[in-house]
Amino acid sequence: MAEDAIKRAEEIGAPEGVAIFANIEPIYPVDADFMMGWVETLSPSPYEAAIYGDFSEGHDVRAAFDQAVEVNPSILDVAIIWTHQPQKGITTRENAPEFNPGTPEEARALMWQYGIDAETCNIDTNLFKRKLLDYLW
Asked: What is the distance between the alpha carbons of residues 21 and 14, in angstroms, rounded to a whole number?
């Protein structure tokens, strides 16, 4: 899967340093082998390994991530994390919460989707660290 993502990124001309996210929705099965494969395949490529999912305690993505880190601790330093937990609800910019995603403390958590599916406009609200801009295209 990661090899295909690299190939597609090259085909569309994505510049070096861009993050390629594995989108792991709550209904998708995931394990430590997937996490390690994703990160270890993308790491030597021109792109950054990134993962979107529920990284809060007790969820499959978090368990798979933690198990992968036990085998390869460098994953903590390499993988860019975007989580959608904990949910705080849709807010205005002025009422946005402080950046506090539900991820392992040592993880490179750069984005937090804290509000999903606004009623008046089907959008999600996110906070991100400025560093994330280095990895977007």
From this structure: 13
- Which element (helix H / strand E) includes 114? strand 108-115
3-state secondary structure 3-64: HHHHHHHHHCCCCCCCEEEEECCCCCCCCHHHHHHHHHHHCCCCCEEEEEECCCCCCHHHHH
pTM of the model: 0.92
- For 3-33, write each residue's pLDDT tens digit: 999 999 999 999 999 999 999 998 999 999 9
Per residue in 115-137, pLDDT (tens digit) is 988 778 788 899 999 999 999 99
Residue-wise burial string across 102-125, b where 16 or more C-beta atoms lie within 10 A, e elsewhere? bbeeebbbbbbbbbeeeeeeeeeb
CATH architecture of 2-135: Alpha-Beta Barrel (3.20)
Q: Residue written as tokens 């506090």?
A: 100
